[in-house]
């Protein structure tokens, strides 16, 4: 027979989790914003954009959240959902990355949503996926 913990001890993990969450939220909220307000030549370039709407950018393609259409597409998929052929690829020679790009910017698409950005001598790798499946277990997915 297992012994039940008193109510106070059963609540303790939840109180600790709530406290940690509150501290993390406070730390996140108190961080200064990245970057700063645009001014000078950058602001002038922004204002010339057709998407600039006086004080902000506006997406020219409206986002429509249609819940019913989302459910319907689960059962009636479009023929264009899957590609008819594998995308073409080109081998990338490792020597290409030995020297930084002369312009200071190089973007290399490595597949899926993995992109290697090289900006002024710094390298950034976005969303690397190095396997056939992206997920916590190997038996799910395509």
What would your notes on this structure say?
The chain has about 140 residues and is of the alpha+beta class. It has a domain at about 90-130. Helices cover about 30% and strands about 15% of the residues. It is built from three helices and three strands, in the order αααβββ. It has helices at about 5-30, 40-45, 65-75, and strands spanning about 105-110, 115-120, 120-125. The chain has a three-stranded antiparallel beta sheet with strand order 1-2-3, with no helix packed on it. The longest helix is centred in the N-terminal third of the chain and has 23 residues, at about 5-30. The chain is extended and about 70 Å long. The mean pLDDT is about 80.
Please outline the helices and strands.
Elements: H1 7-29, H2 40-47, H3 67-75, E1 105-111, E2 114-119, E3 122-126
Antiparallel strand pairs: 1-2, 2-3
| Biggest pleated sheet | 3 strands, antiparallel
- The largest beta-sheet arranges its strands as 1-2-3
What is Rg?
25 Å
Number of strands: 3
How much of the sequence is in beta strands? 5-15%
Shape label:
extended
Task: Give the N-terminus to C-terminus distance in angstroms.
Answer: 45 Å
Percent in helix? 25-40%
Mean pLDDT: 81
- Low-confidence parts lasting 5 or more residues at pLDDT below 50? none
Structure classification = alpha+beta
SSE arrangement, N to C: HHHEEE
What's the number of helices?
Answer: 3
């Amino acid at each position: 027979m297992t012994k039940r913990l008193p109510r106070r001890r059963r609540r303790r993990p939840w109180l600790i989790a709530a406290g940690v969450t509150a501290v993390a939220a406070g730390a996140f909220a108190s961080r200064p914003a990245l970057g700063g307000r645009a001014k000078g030549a950058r602001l002038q370039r922004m204002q010339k954009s057709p998407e600039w709407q006086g004080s902000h950018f506006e997406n020219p393609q409206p986002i429509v959240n249609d819940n019913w259409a989302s459910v319907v597409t689960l059962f009636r998929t479009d023929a264009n959902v899957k590609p008819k052929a594998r995308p073409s690829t080109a081998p990338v020679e490792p020597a290409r990355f030995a020297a930084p790009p002369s312009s200071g910017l190089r973007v290399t698409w490595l597949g899926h949503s993995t992109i290697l950005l090289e900006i002024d001598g710094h390298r950034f790798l976005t969303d690397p996926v190095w396997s056939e499946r992206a997920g916590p277990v190997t038996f799910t997915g395509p």
